Amino acid sequence: MEHLIIMAGGVGSRFWPMSTPERPKQFIDVLGTGNTLLQDTVYRFGHIVRDENIWVVTSRHYYDLVKKQLPFLDNNHILLEPCRRNTAPCIAYATWKIKKYDPEASLIIAPADHNMTDVEEFRRVIQEGVKFVKTNKGILTLGITPSHPETGYGYIQSGKALEEEKICKVKAFKEKPDYATASVYLREGGYYWNSGIFLVKACTMEQALRQNLPEMAKLFDNLDSVFYTAAEQEAIDRSFPSCPNISIDYAVMEHADNMYVYPASFGWSDLGTWGALYEQAEKDAAGNALVAGNVKMLESTGCIVHAPAGKKMIVQGLQDYIIAEENGVLLICRKADEQRIKEFSELF
Amino acid sequence: MEHLIIMAGGVGSRFWPMSTPERPKQFIDVLGTGNTLLQDTVYRFGHIVRDENIWVVTSRHYYDLVKKQLPFLDNNHILLEPCRRNTAPCIAYATWKIKKYDPEASLIIAPADHNMTDVEEFRRVIQEGVKFVKTNKGILTLGITPSHPETGYGYIQSGKALEEEKICKVKAFKEKPDYATASVYLREGGYYWNSGIFLVKACTMEQALRQNLPEMAKLFDNLDSVFYTAAEQEAIDRSFPSCPNISIDYAVMEHADNMYVYPASFGWSDLGTWGALYEQAEKDAAGNALVAGNVKMLESTGCIVHAPAGKKMIVQGLQDYIIAEENGVLLICRKADEQRIKEFSELF
């Protein structure tokens, strides 16, 4: 069966004050679609994954938000981390829990806060990918054909092509490059943005984690008897902090020899910056992206405005600014200076 | 005795959204002094006018605001207009009420929403002025020595000087001039900004109103018996709407032959525009005027920011903007475009 594991533990600090530790970006309707990013992530898999096969891994602080936004989720499917330990322990927890009853499960592992503009193509790619991992003992990453030399993403270099030249072996993972290097990647071709979305069978994932993080694997082996019982949360709260703080890329993918990449284009964005959010959001005729609020723009272009529902704002004479209000905090800053938002947020 | 009549019925529409019809500018601490403009107006007359000789004329909608901000005021000293009728009826109401028991009273008549930076000099001028009107049957206006060819104020042209050349006869009142005309005024000299503050004995004011607006005078004569009784408000509510909608300048001063002007300089401003407010407010090293709120300015200059108490704002990379929030409405606009604020306020 296909299972969807949604990683929803991020804190979204780059989107302050819209996104706060109390309510990070994945729990907000940042694109003004009427759904939060988490909800959109789930809905995107409609008819591909059954509701009872959806799993959300998040911080224990966000239980109420998940429960409210995805009320159909059984408590057993909301995996609550007592502390942040990056993606490897997060994926291990879900994998161990699922493999207890379905080691042959096809796992689709995806962040909760990404966006795809071409959902039909995304669904086609996922379905092709599931077919692939069902019959191959590999980890299939989705690589995005780059449109520009982006320095904010990691890249996947493809190797030999399989399957009528769509899916390729991975030759190498590349860290976020500088602009010159990214330009070389684009010129040479065969490099794809690492979307952070991947597909793998539960038993394959288990094996890879066991091989690369044997102590962590043992930790989850010891929890096997408490999964799906009333004792699970307490046991996780006790054991999980011992997990290494390490990403799945660094812990597994960069060393594994069964890595594959599916080069695809479905209008993907990690919505990792206000700039990315601006690109993906609907814009008015003057190129302003207005998310919620009751906002009037005059002689303004290229702005992105986030306001609480119903909040009235008049913005006149601004070019390329971020205007964001939440929880009684207002930020006005140049879009070009968004990398300083963390610094701004620390001023209070 | 000296009596102070404060005209506090304005609606301050140019300062939206900071100032609203529910709470206009005179009831707000727009300069960040810790006092509202109404309070500062009263406190400025400390030891010149006794508390029991202070009168506030305002709209009946603002009774609670006046009562809260000036709790020492007896209800008989809060004169409530049932509708807006400009300054002549406002002044007539107060004059008739005061002259009932003290026709020889010296009246100091002042708007509630002006500012003076040199309070000591202002107090000296007021005291000199009171001396003058006690012994002269005239109306003494305070004329401000102009510092620049302002087109937002009316001007008073002085005539022959009296009293060791300080107080002069008024030769003419001039409407708000265009820039060229204002420049001529400055070059020629003998023209002063009309501050809207004037001094006059109650009986002199009564006589002038009786002569210029005889029907209105009769209306207030008829109310004489109800002043200071429980029936006063109901009678005013019934009669006041019949008053002509006319300013004291137009109704009396421009025709009277007993007009005097005291040329003075005490850092006066009518705070009539955001620009004027900006000039009078305290500014940080970068020239930003921050009124209330918890506001951090970065790489910003020449801005004026009004935020509700405690409201957190970060403003980065703005030059010469107005940022004002009140009652859940935020305005961001260029200072140079402030004359369009009324238009902006009508967008909702």
From TrEMBL, chains A, B:
GO BP term, pick one: GDP-mannose biosynthetic process
Keyword GTP-binding belongs to the record: yes
Protein EC: 2.7.7.13
Segments forming domain Nucleotidyl transferase: 5-285
Key words of the record: GTP-binding, Nucleotide-binding, Nucleotidyltransferase, Transferase
Pfam families given in the database record: NTP_transferase (PF00483)
Gene Ontology molecular function: any one: mannose-1-phosphate guanylyltransferase (GTP) activity
Catalytic activity: alpha-D-mannose 1-phosphate + GTP + H(+) = GDP-alpha-D-mannose + diphosphate
Highest rank taxon of the organism: Bacteria
Top EC category: transferase
Keyword Nucleotide-binding attributed: yes
InterPro entries listed in its UniProt record: GMPP_N, Mannose-6P_isomerase_type2, NTP_transferase_dom, Nucleotide-diphossugar_trans
PANTHER family: MANNOSE-1-PHOSPHATE GUANYLYLTRANSFERASE (PTHR46390:SF1)
Family: Belongs to the mannose-6-phosphate isomerase type 2 family.
Protein's name in the database: mannose-1-phosphate guanylyltransferase
